Amino acid sequence: MEDRLKVKSNINLVLNEGLPPPGEIQFLSVTSDSVSLSWGSLEERTGPQKFRVTWKCDREVSSLRVKGVLNVKINGLEPGRRYEFNVATEGDNGNQSRRVSASVSTEVPTPRDLTIVQSGATAFTLKWNKALRLDQTPQSFLVSYSSPGTETKAANTTDCYIILCNLQLETQYIISVSTVLKNGEQSEPVSTTICTKLPDPVGLKVDSVTISSANVSWSQPHGMDQTQHRYLISYQGTEKERWISTRYHSIVLSDLQPATEYSVTVCTELENGEQSQLVSTTFTTKVQAPGDLKVDQLKPTSLTISWSKAHGMEKTPHHFIIRVARSLEGSKIQTQIAEPQEEYLEYCHRKCSDLQPGTEYTVSVSTMLANGEQSEPVSTTICTKLSLEMYMQKVGLKQYFTQKLSLNTMLAVDGQMLEDNHAPTLQSLPMCFLKELMRVNVSARDVQSDDKDLMNPLDLITALFLCSESFLQQDIALKMSMCQFAVPLLLPNCDTEQSTLMLWAMRDIVNKYRPHSMKDQKGYVEKSIVLTDLPMVSFVRLGNSTLSKSQLLNDVLSCSQQNYNTFVHSNMPAGNIPRTISDGLVEISWYLPSGNPNIDVFTEPVAVANLRGDIQDFQTQFSFLCETSAAVFVFCDDLGSDSSILNLQKMKDRLFIVCNSEAKSYDAATFEKHSGGIIRKDRQMNNAQLVKKLRSTVTDVMKANPHKTKVEEMRVVAHELGIPVDEDDEICLKAKKNAALITDQISCIPSYKDSQLPLQGETWKSLTALEKEEVKLKKAGDKDIEIYKSELKQEKYELRKKQLSHGISDSMKHFMEGLRTSKEERSYFLKWMKLNLDNLSRTRLSALREKYKELCQSTPGKKDLIADLDKQISNSSLGTEHFLREVGQMYEATMSSESSETPQQFQGLPGICAQLMLDGFPLELMDGDASNIPMKWISDVLQELHFLTMSNSKIRVVSVLGVQSSGKSTLLNTMFGVQFSVSSGRCTRGAFMQLIKIKEELRDELKCDFIMVIDTVGLKGLQSTHLTDNYQHDNELATLLVGLSDISIVNIAMENTTDMKDTLQIVAHAFLRMKEVGKKPSCQFVHQNVADISAHDKNLRDRNCFLEQLNEMTAVASRLENAGDDTKFTDIIDYKPEDNCYIPGLWHGSPPMAPVDKGYSEAVANFKRMLIYSLKKETPSAQTIPEFLEWIRSLWESVKYENFIFSFRNSIVAEAYTKLCVEFNRWDWAFQKHMHSWLMKAERRIANYGLITSQQESGLDDLLSSLKTEASNELQREGKTFIDNMTSYYKGEERNVCLVEKYKEEFSINAEICRRETDRAVNNKLEAAVDLKKGTYQLGNIKKNNRDTLAKKVSDLVKEFSGDENPMNDKQLEKEFDNMWDKTIKELTFKGLKPQNVSQDIYSDLEKHLGTQSRAVKDILDNSKYLKDCGLEKFKVKNEHSIVYKILNKIESKESYIKMKCEIQDMADNIINQSERFVANKVKEKTDYNNTYIQALLELIKKNLHMNKELQISAEFEASLKIHICGNATREFQKMHDAFIKDNDPRQSLTNLKQQFLADFKDLFYKRDHCKRKAEEFTKHCLEPAVKEYITKSLGPDILDEILSNCSDVFSTRSSFQCSMLKCLLSGNFQTFVKYTDYYEGFVFEFILNNTVEYLSKRSRTAKDISIITNMEVQHLKTISRQIKEAVEKSLQTDSDRPDEDGEGDVNFNLFIQDLHSELSSMLVIPTDTTGMTLENSKTKEFSDMLLSSVEEMESRLRDEFHKDQDIFKKLDSLPDPPQEKLFNKLFGCGRQCPFCKAPCDVEGESHIKHSALIHRPKGLGWCEKRGKLTTEICSQSVFSKWINALKCFLFHVEMTWIFQSGNSQATNYWKFLFVKHNEEYAKLHNVLPASLPGDWSSITHEEALKRLMEMFRKDI
Questions:
Q1: Which of 232, 704, 1210, 1626 is most enclosed, with most CB atoms within 10 A?
Q2: DSSP of 423-486, one letter per residue?
Q3: For the segment 1688-1720, what is each residue's pLDDT rounded down to a tens digit?
Q4: Tens of pLDDT along 1842-1884?
């Protein structure tokens, strides 16, 4: 420091001695960043002194001035830098003395925070931090260290750490660190001291301890890698301390005492003997734990455990401590942790009680010594058995434990079926298993959940049986039997520790087999398994057995070719899982031989029972088996003391013990005590040999005349042992008793059916035949058809009376009583009925078939006997459907009786059957024996079903078609779990429907609530071979099914190609018919018995061939149905060949021991999924039950008529068609209304041309062209909207729109026709308007010039006399005015319109129209040049005209001639009437004639003739008709033209204005205010006519709009219009009736007119005191008046008048008038030639005020006029476009009438080719008579009747143009009533005899007629 403070002074002498220098510089202190310095004072100066101090470093200089002091401290210096300081004296003037200098360096700071970390025994790491303020300064560090007596070592580093290694042990070192800068400056060192030493071992621990040893380890000390050393270990317990050394890091200390505490020390030792410090630890040797801990017995509330003593602890005193505690994870049922139970025992077993069921416990046992030391516990985790409720909760079945799972619930379709069967959780496993079992999947038991918790299949089966109601148990047992699964015989209940005999559950199992005793006769046995006498062998276990009893049983029952897991065993999935609730279960299965010795294991049938669990725990079950079995096989490896249970059963000779001599517990001595019934497996015997031995033993038992028993008889043994039987339920027994009252009386089925079920026998078949004859009338002969039908009706009535006369048989009384019981009892009752009847039928049919076979083999020539036996076989089928059929027949007969009340015994029966359907019971739709549908019964049942399903439920219908015995019913049963008959010797006969519920989650997707599944008799069925026309029968059945179904499944058995082709043709017929009626069901083809797994790929070519076959069959069917011959299958249905479903055969192997093939089950499941997906995609909406019922009615009705395509109609189709018609008419009217509105505006534009501004006449052509372009655009846009509306309607969600798909094209054509006709009409009217304007244009100019001339003359006259001093009076003025007027009139030119020869013009147009015709036509035309003389007489079809000669010449019958002639006359009259109305409407327009009128008229005639082209009208007739019509038109149009010429005469027009000019003259002369008068004149003569015209033209469309909107019940469609007219006839008189029948067109027009007038006469809804039409007039008047006022206000440009040049007039007046015309031009056509002169001195404001006032007066005046004029007929007639005409054209239709009865065609639209009428009437009301008498027959009968064969040509023409509805082959009550009412008068009118009416016609009332009419039109009364 002293060196640093040494000052190097340099004193320089200053030349200016006036400023003495300071004294020598002294450094007072120096730090790293500051220097304090001082200097000496000036000896010669006094007072304050100033000094300049400067310092520099590396050329950086700083300075400061110091005053009055001799020292200063300089801060902010950099550390380790050398600074030079200078001090000089400073004078006042800034001069300085010489400087005194000195230099010094700032200090270097030392490093900070020096720390030392020992890295090893001889290594250290030094760390430090840089000095403050040197962070950014380049520096290094000098490290030096030394020990005493050694040389100092140094090292340099730039880092802040350094490692010192290889130091000497046990040595002290001094270490210092200095900072060194780049300039060499160095800080003071910072120092410390360290010392090295020998380290002790690291991490001493005891790794393991046993009874007599311990493993101790440690880690090597740090830094000892290069130093030779070892470790010294000492340990000591109760004995002397022992030492041991090692160079390793671990050691095993052995020979230790058990349960003793030891201390262990370890230290490091060098070669020189130097040692480190000791490290130590302690441990205690273990106590030996017990061994072989096991659970001997486990129950819900207790368990028993046992264990063995520890090895080597025999001589050591000890005891055991047992702890029982709930596991920390707890139970899934209860999670509360209980306090552990702890007990001290000396023996090696213990029972733990008071436990919670279903709870997981940890049981541990420890060995405890006398000193309290104890071993590690040996433990196990045990879950106590669950109570049943807890177990059911665990597996997701708790909700069904008390409220059992029903069969109906299981059958419901849910979303799970759409996925692969997979159980993600244990709770979902039971339902997954059940779903798989329901579809008979043999791998159902293999389904397991993804949870760690697995479930033994036996527990699963037991749980499901316990949670299922009895009917579901039956179904489960049946499906298990089909899968060859063993079924429960005794079902355990672990809560009650009781078993139940499952007798009821097995009732449905029926098996067929052929014992070897019957193999030669090829006979077989078919019997309910519970009623079959069979020997039973049972297999049980006693104690432990190393042999798998169940697996051996499976091997015993399986032949080498068929090996199935009948019984669950441990090698199956989850079979090794401990059973929880199924211990004590007794399963049963059966071995049934096939009669083939090569594959049969046993030659006779045998039952096999298997007890699960130890017989010691289930002695009751064992006793039951011993009592019922022919032999019992006991599996046991160690009899021991447990064999006493065997001695309790007295069946030593039937008891066989099966043991394994290789088992550890096997004791040969104990087995020797028993007799020879021992089957021992030793080392030389494998499993196959053991199986063979077991089979041999069973065979021997069966040969020894064993004890046989029926399962049904086992109930006696069960009762003796206290075992409940499932059939012991009180309701079940009661139902069984009630069923027995019926079935016990049956001995001979045919005779029983005749006596107890008489209504469905021959009487019902006769009724069926009569119903078909009623519509086919094949046996009518020459009888009057209606009389014949009346006779048939009477026969039906007598047959129904005969049915009722039988009364209710005893059996049916009992049956109906059974139906009226509670829901549960009714289900049991029907099930018992089914079981009993099936058993009876099987027994009866078996005997009859055997007899039939013998008779055919022995005496084949006895055909009569064989036929009689065959009939007996057909009649020996008896089931519940026959009893329900009898109920339906009784109901039908009762309801058809004359009594109005339903007998009490039949009330509620439809509701009961509806409930049965909801419960899953099938209902017979069609009687298979009579091939008929009891429609009233079915209707009422379905109506009740509709009510029960909340009246808004939707259904989808699935049906199956196919050849008999092709697996249709089995397919449906497997798909949906239903139970259609497939055996019992009774295949499905007729059609049955079953309702399947859709679960909530799937309803929105399927858009329905139920699926209706329909199964039917097979096509080409044996029972239908006796029908005279089997092919027709199959067609009818297929049509009915396809028509009812959303999806039809076509089932094809691949092995029979002939049947397949027949089936395809039948199906093609059915689908073709559905296409024609508008319904589009889907079709799914199922090919059965396709075993090849590659069938789908291999059959690509086959599928294409199959499609070709379908197309071929469709073409054939199309020809047969008269629907063309080029129709393909893909034209009638969306079909893709790749969607075909291929299903393998049902059985996997050879029955009866074959299970259902897994491939079959999987294929059916996939098909079901595909079916549901197809239902999702179905575009037609699901139908309601009433809609389904309506389809049944209409389809069956049409099927009976055998003429399906052209006769089908039902209310659903009719409703859909009506909705379409209503919408179409609405769109049509919107289109027409829009175009009418546009046309009115266009016509006003033409009419106003040149009136407002000066325009050239030539501009009219440009205006016409522009308007035509606008019209085309409007038509295009509105027409597109029209078509778009229809397209959207078909794409929308309107219900049943698919049913009218076939009408889409027809309505599209109608829309296009409407657009074209509107286009033509608009263009014609535009051309006519322009032509009229052109014709009057020059005339208008003449009128204007004449008025202008007169106006000037008047003005001149005013000027001439206004200056006189003697003013003139009025008479003088008038005289002067008259003189001027007469003079001027003589000077003016009056050139009016040129008269036109209308007749010549029309003839010219007609000549052009007919000019290209034949010579005969030209001759007719030449003879009719004077058209005005033509058509004066009524047009008649005359023979000499040769008009219909080509047709009439071919018809021999006079009646045919008259018919044809009448029809042509009707057509001509119709066209003439329409033409006359057309001409009259044109005349009413009061305009000039235009040649477009005659062109439109000729087009009208042409259109009507084209609509009747099938009449083959000749050209001569066409010319004559057109000339007749044009003659009338000529006269009317000439009158119209002449009137127009007269009204537009210019001289007369001017003469009419004389008084107005006179008034103007007087006002001008007297200079009176004329604004008021001119406003009144303008209003009266200009505005008022225009307003009236506006209202008149607007009224027609508005009236039509009002009528269509508010009278839709009458005018919405032609159908509703027809209904309204027919309803009117009922209350009308004879004159009204004759008008309708004989003068239909006039009646229609009059009816429309009267209804229109009636409606318009009603009080208005908005203005109650006036009529509707008056209100409409008033509203239009208000509208146009308001617009006129607004136009006046708008045209008035200023409030103040601006005078003209003379100062009198208003220059704005003319502009005002011009603007007013312009504003109103789009609404009104204001005439300009109806007022006098325009006075130029008028004041605009005053005139406008007066005008507004006049408009108000006009509005009031016209309103009063409208109120007074209530002649609505006159108003309608005055309209230019009368609404009644529009309605007539809309509703009259094509005008065609039935050629037989004159019923009008009511088909909508104009483009239809075929005509039809919903209701035809008896032909007698169409003037038709037979032999001089009115006939009662109707049209469809005539088409097929014999008497009309002579009319073949005429009929051909009729059939080509008319469709006769099937339901109209019988006169309706409506026309029957009217015929009776007017028969006499109508016959007299037509000079024939009255008809001979059937007697029952007279009983029809007015109300019945009205009701039938409303029903036909689907309307409410």
A1: 1210
A2: BSSTTTHHHHHHHHHHTT-TTGGG--BSSS----HHHHHHHHHHHB-HHHHHHHHHHHHHTT--
A3: 888 876 444 555 444 444 556 667 777 887 888
A4: 333 434 444 444 545 777 655 444 557 888 899 899 989 888 8
